[in-house]
Specification:
Low-confidence stretches: none
Helix content: 55-70%
Distance between the termini: 13 Å
Order of helices and strands: HHHHHEEHHHHHHH
Shape: globular
Strand order of the largest sheet: 1-2
Number of strands: 2
Largest sheet: 2 strands, antiparallel
Length: 252
Amino acid sequence: MYTTRPIKMDNIESLLKEYAVKYETPDFLPADPSWFMHQVEGHENQETTAFIASCLSYGSRKQFMPKIQNILDMAGNNVHEWVASGKFANDIHDDDDCFYRLYTNHTMFTLLTALKQMIDNYGSIGCYVKANARDGFSAVKAITDYFASKGIETIIPKNTTSACKRVCMFLRWMVRDGSPVDLGLWSSFIDKRSLIIPMDTHVLQEANRLGLITSKTASMAAARKLTARLAEIFPDDPLKGDFALFGYGVNH
């Protein structure tokens, strides 16, 4: 259980700015799931790789990082073509064997089938989001609505009541430009100032320790409150605060 350490409010801004600079570097990548989207070529391929990587990013990194690598290996590093062509069905069968933790092969097969349909209808994930969203929150909603309409609730949240941590993380990767970590492929149609911080229990705890928010659960409402607070510190790019909070967690 974390204990609250009082920090003067006038020190928080400089502290978070320091950590943001220190941790948003290429050295952040190798131990993070964002690493995988940097290992493939082509914007659509990077999008699709990033999306699947975000879906699998829960639990222990020692477990999910090899599982994401397994996807790249099966796809021959062309994850977009692997999904769009339906070749994934040769590697992941529609059965109840375990794929990763709570995800069965059926769960992954269903997700990839729905993703293939999105690509068939729109051309890419980015084209779907561009057609159905105007900012960070509506992009989260567009993604959750699409997969909910396909009956998928295990991997992608069915609505935006929860914090939608992994969806928000995927959007951070796609939208934020000028970063050695995030790709910024969608920066032309989603403003990074409208993104919502990827919130899990750990981020919530760190934000509460710093007195940024007082929320008790990692919900979308709490994530938006924290993002608004971070926008006071990083007005042009609130999700710099994601790296800052990571750095704070490492050092305190």
